[in-house]
Amino acid sequence: MRLILNGLLDLATSGQSFIIWGQIMDKGIYRSWYSSVLDDTDFQQLSSDSRLLLLCIKISRINNMAGICYFDKGASVTLQYQTGLSAQRISKSIKELVNSHWIALQEPILWLRNGLKYTPNVKMNNPKHIKGVETILKSLPKLQIVITFCDYYNLAYPFDSPPIAPRNTETDTETDTDTETETDTETETESGKPDVIPFEDIIKDLNIKAGSSYQPTSEATRNLIRHLWKSFGITDFFTVHSNMVDAWGADQKMKIYLRPSTLYQASKFEEYLNKPKKKELEWWK
Predict the structure, then answer these.
(1) For the chain, what are the domain ranges?
(2) Least enclosed by CB within 10 Å: which of 37, 42, 210, 245?
């Protein structure tokens, strides 16, 4: 396995044609991953360890047709064996792949971003293939990364409902009021909107999509969300995250602005919400 993957990397860095079974694979159904990615400039900018690891994740037994799988200690050991990389080098490469938006990670789940969309042997208009993907999703834990995956591919949630805090139907008491600010959600009453504010789910979605680690307990962030919550809902926040990661995620100068203080500006939020997406590129972009 390692010899094959290293051979692919040698071809990617040498500029030589990628030859399989005596044919130059310039075009065809496998161009979407098995050949084109090797010549991609973003792929070339990754470290050699990260390139090796990304290729291995794509074809490894830890992965599946959906491209979203468990990444636990056992999977890490498997990748160490398959790549020849140490645990430390695997960990470092995973961070690089997350930060450069090739994968998303919410332990213990890893998502090879757009891996399903451009897998040549899986068609999302095929009912059998959709059923296979849905079966995989039902085996995964109730995490935001799974919800984000379903939203991206317009699939039904594998859970009864998204893991968002329920509404508070109990009568407020002094005790409830005193402890409310310590939780990850908060009922907003001034606006007349009884919905619970899902701070944790909003920030978790941002962290997954942007590869960041912002805290939902930050009072500054909560104040920004509270103000927007009077006019917008959770799906609007998710859309803003997707739109702006699409717009800025690959730009080293702009990706630093994928932060709550910028994205949740009241004067800019609606503009970000309605921002048209870039013309769709190859899956690894």
Answers:
(1) 2-153, 174-273
(2) 42
Closest CA to 205 of 247, 263, 134, 252: 263
How many residues does the structure list for the chain?
285
| Cα–Cα distance, 117 to 124 (Å, whole number) | 8
Cβ-contact 198, 229 below 8 angstroms: no
| 107-138 residue pLDDT tens | 889 998 877 777 777 787 888 888 888 888 88
pLDDT tens for 192-248 read: 444 578 898 899 889 888 888 899 999 999 999 999 998 888 888 988 998 898 888
Name 94's bridge partners. none
Backbone φ and ψ for 49, nearest 5 degrees, come out as -65, -45
Q: How far apart are alpha carbons 39 and 19 in whole angstroms?
A: 13
Task: Give kind and range of the element (H or E) at residue 112.
Answer: strand 109-112
Under CATH, which number does the domain 2-153 receive? 1.10.10.10
